[in-house]
Write a structure and sequence with these properties.
This protein is about 45% helix and about 10% strand. By secondary structure, it is mainly α. It folds into two domains: about 110 residues, Periplasmic binding protein-like II (D-Maltodextrin-Binding Protein, domain 2), CATH 3.40.190; about 70 residues, no CATH class. The protein has a three-stranded parallel β-sheet with strand order 2-1-3, with helices on both faces. A two-stranded antiparallel ribbon has the order 4-5. A hairpin with a 2-residue loop joins strand 4 and strand 5. The protein starts with a helix and ends in a 16-residue tail after the last helix.
Length: about 200
């Protein structure tokens, strides 16, 4: 990680770094990495994490920012070399330990860690009966051994939030993402003018 950051500082804007599109959590992580280390990469946006990682595997870019869940199969198969976690904790894949970048670069703590949530939504206009049936189905699925084993094996955490609780989580994420983009200089519209409260 240190040699990569040093190279990006020595030759700014020359090391191509892939992430899913502008404004995505992975782009925010790249911006945070740059701001926290004074390195400057050449950001190459892709339409999703899969094409970004494919670009790294094929040598189109030298660095890809993505979640461990997305990168795990490529790391496990020896196609990607993990350099560091941007989550504030180290991680393990088999006998490999991926160090925590925030320990190596404490200045990153000003911007990181950032997290995301993945959810399923139904139209507000759906009847309460429909919402209740779907909620019950997801509750049963999340409690199953199959889903829990899949989540553990793919480095996901299942929160099981629904309704108002889930809405509050996503409102908080909107606030964090909008203000992080603004604070990192990647946004041109002040979130306050959009009525998005500071986190």
């Amino acid at each position: 990680m240190r040699s990569l950051v040093d190279a990006a500082k020595a030759a700014p804007d020359t090391i191509p770094a892939a992430a899913s599109g502008s404004g995505s959590i992975h782009h925010l992580n790249l911006l945070a990495l740059e701001n926290g280390t004074d390195a400057k990469f050449r950001f190459v946006p892709y339409q999703g994490s899969a094409p970004a990682m494919e670009a790294a595997v094929n040598g189109e870019v030298q660095l890809v920012i993505g979640s461990l869940a997305e990168q795990f199969p490529l790391i496990d198969g020896g196609k990607l070399k993990p350099l560091a976690m941007l989550s504030g904790q180290e991680a393990s894949i088999g006998d490999k330990t991926i160090p925590d970048a925030l320990s190596e670069y404490p200045s990153l703590k000003q911007y990181l860690p950032l997290s995301q949530s993945i959810g399923f939504a139904v139209a507000n206009s759906a009847s309460d009966d429909v919402k209740n049936v779907l909620s019950e189905a997801f509750t049963q699925a999340m409690a199953s051994d199959t889903v829990r084993e899949w989540a553990d094996g793919n480095h996901y955490v299942i929160s099981g939030q629904m309704g108002d609780e889930a809405s509050k989580t996503f409102a908080k994420l909107e606030s964090v993402f909008a203000w992080t983009l603004w604070d990192l200089g990647a946004a041109t519209v002040d979130p306050e003018t959009l009525g998005i409260p500071k986190p």
